[in-house]
Write a structure and sequence with these properties.
The protein has four helices and no strands. The protein is mainly α.
Length: about 210
């Protein structure tokens, strides 16, 4: 009798452990699915942002070439033409470089498939993207300085009173810093950090 009760107790315990294991596995599967979905959503936003940047670059390049090659349509005088030529060449080279960079990073993000790749590989690819973003910020900051210097010359601001020039320079600096900071901090890095957080959680779950 005692043996039957013991067997019954063991069977009950075994069933309990099986149900608990099944529950734990279900919860883990849900956690993995949630983190993957959140990470993929952030990666998708970054890809969409780069696709938008590519589109803007192509449209901008088309407009610039129109202004440059058909100056009579916009009634550009002979006095302004040399400055406009210099400015347009600078912008065209900048946009072409930007299009190349955006396409490169866009393809990188599109090829980062969290459902098909090992988590370690996805993590490494995101770290590479994060490092490239730092390079992009540096390049963007240098470009902003060059753009402002060229714009300063084209618009003839250097002929103005020193007080006006000081105000203009301060406005340019504050505007550039604010735009670069807000864009990368609140848009780009927000999605990078969110993807990174979810990928780290996935690595932790898979390790455990």
């Amino acid at each position: 009798m005692e043996l039957d009760e013991l067997k019954k107790s063991w069977n009950t315990l075994d069933e309990h452990l099986k149900r608990k294991k099944l529950t734990d596995e279900t919860q883990i599967a849900k956690m993995i699915a949630t983190h993957k979905a959140d990470a993929q959503k952030s990666i998708g936003r970054l890809s969409s942002l780069q696709r938008l940047s590519l589109s803007i670059g192509i449209v901008g390049l088309t407009l610039l070439l129109t202004i440059w090659l058909i100056p009579s349509v916009f009634h550009i005088s002979a006095e302004w033409q040399p400055k406009i030529n210099t400015f347009v060449v600078f912008l065209c080279v900048s946009i072409l470089a930007g299009i190349w960079w955006d396409y490169r990073t866009y393809r990188w993000m599109m090829d980062t498939r969290i459902d098909e790749m090992p988590i370690a590989v996805v993590s490494k690819r995101m770290e590479n993207f994060r490092r490239w973003t730092k390079y992009e910020i540096i390049a963007t900051s240098i470009w902003a300085i060059l753009f402002n210097v060229l714009n300063y010359w084209v618009m003839g601001y250097y002929r103005a009173d020193w007080k006006i020039q000081t105000v203009l320079i301060l406005v340019f600096i504050v505007f550039d810093v604010a735009v670069i900071y807000l864009f990368y901090k609140k848009v780009v890095y927000k999605n990078i950090n969110n993807a990174r957080k979810n990928i780290e959680e996935l690595k932790q779950i898979c390790t455990d």
